[in-house]
Fold this protein.
Amino acid sequence: MSTSNNILIIDDEPQICKLLQIALESNHYKITIANTAQDGIIKAANHPPDLILLDLGLPDKNGQDVLVELREWYKSPVIILSVQKDEENIVRALDSGATDYLTKPFRTGELLARIRSALRNAVLEKNEPVIIFQNLQVDLINRIVKKNKEILKLTSTEFNLLSLLVNNEGKVLTHQYLLKEIWGPTYIHESQYLRVFIGQLRKKIEDDYNVPKHIITESGVGYRFIGN
Amino acid sequence: MNNFSLYKLSNQKQYLISITTVILTASVCYLFSDFIGYRNIALILLFVVSILATFMNVFPLLLSAILSALIWDYFFIPPKFRFHVESAEDVLMLVMYFVVAFVNAILTNRIRKAEKEANEKDEKEKIIKLYNTLLNSLSHELRTPIATIIGATDTLQENEEMLDTNSKKILVSEISTASLRLNQQVENLLNMSRLESGFLQLHKDWCDVNELIYKVVNEVHSTSVKRNFNIQIIESLPYFKLDFGIMEQILYNLLINAVAYTPDNSTIHIKVSRFDAGEISLMEPDNAKTKLVIVIRDEGNGFPQEEMNKVFDKFYRIHTHKTGGTGLGLSIVKGFVEAHGGTIRLKNSSVGGAEFTIAIPTETNYMNALKNE
């Protein structure tokens, strides 16, 4: 094991904290626990962790506000753990800079996968010119995408969309964010464009268009690119 | 005349009706007073008041009783056109008339009140019965998984050294299944209360129905691999404006229901099409006449004919079936479909099995049919 990552858990439920501690420590992460928003912010400032797990239902402060406050200076991943599963809350947290969002109850395997992906993205140098996922090869500089070593014909919008997704591998990108980045701020409600291009991209890069393994739908929220 | 529904009329109208009826009757009687005899007229008036009593409230009725007594006295009892009554017999008649009309009015009113109370009691009993069903169903559906979890954890804690690895594995997997089941029940309850509270707000957005169907099918497929899914989606299906998350729940509940009531290795058929009610008129450019139609058919035994109407009721479960569930799944489906302004129908398919048909009227967008760039 290389140097283990520090994770700060900000959650007021002792049971959840204990559970997370055992699950994460057995996967070689170092854990710090804060039971209040205030404590969490202080601990994050004193010893900036590599990743923060933040609960939205804290006793002293709304988790959404804590997130905004943290994001003023904290650049590493923040994963939200919340019982609120309505899309509005999820989109709001993601728009405020959350790296990812998991609703309780969640599976431990899922949490570990999201943590790994968030940490990997945080250290990944984005100037890596060619990214390879299984049978898919994305050359960001020469704008070439290969599937099973064969060059795929992508339109420029398709390529822009794919490279945005690939650059944020593992992270949920909201509909509004994707529309704004690819088509511009006046298009943030024109979700039909996104549907068209996601559909076309899937047809080209997925093995089975109907069982996508790379571009995953996050219902009512956005899309997530999964590499492996 | 449908007099008997008149008691639903406003008080004002009731007063008007009682006054005009009494005056009208009295006028007719007055024309024939020479032939009838004034004591008989009292009976006729009393008859009219009794008729009024069957559908009027107490105060308009009392008014008609008093009015008819005064009219009888003034216009009919000799000496006419005076309230003065001469013969002792007539005084007795007048008093008796008053009393009979009053008692009539009050008694009828009391009967009606009793009727209303009985109805309310019936209603209350129905609610209590529903509540009991809820409690029974809930306590069973929630306590069974809780009991499993407590039992399994106790066993793991107390007999740790006596259990072999395999037994431990079984217990842990039981805990896992039970908690997932518990989670599903809580999910259903939360959805139900969202529907009941009227808090449900749809977030409609353009949906690729193909994406929607396959997402749910892939999810169900990953939990119950022993079913085949036959999916037919017509080509050139437009995008529909729907709440993706809610639609997912609708389809998920229907598919899980189909899985629960069908044998292993059977096929669940899903057919998606579009329904256009006539030409799309230029007056309605939003073409809300287009409906998304989803038909889900299974290869089970179908539903017993006499239970068809009840399956969407809250807490209803097919009597002959032992599969768990709070009986909330299908009523949530119905609520969610109706929140979209749509309809859901159930019939037994001609080739056997249950067939659910959802039709949701919504805006469409043919952007996906255009060739890009």
Residues 6-123 of chain A form a domain with the Rossmann fold fold (CATH 3.40.50.2300).
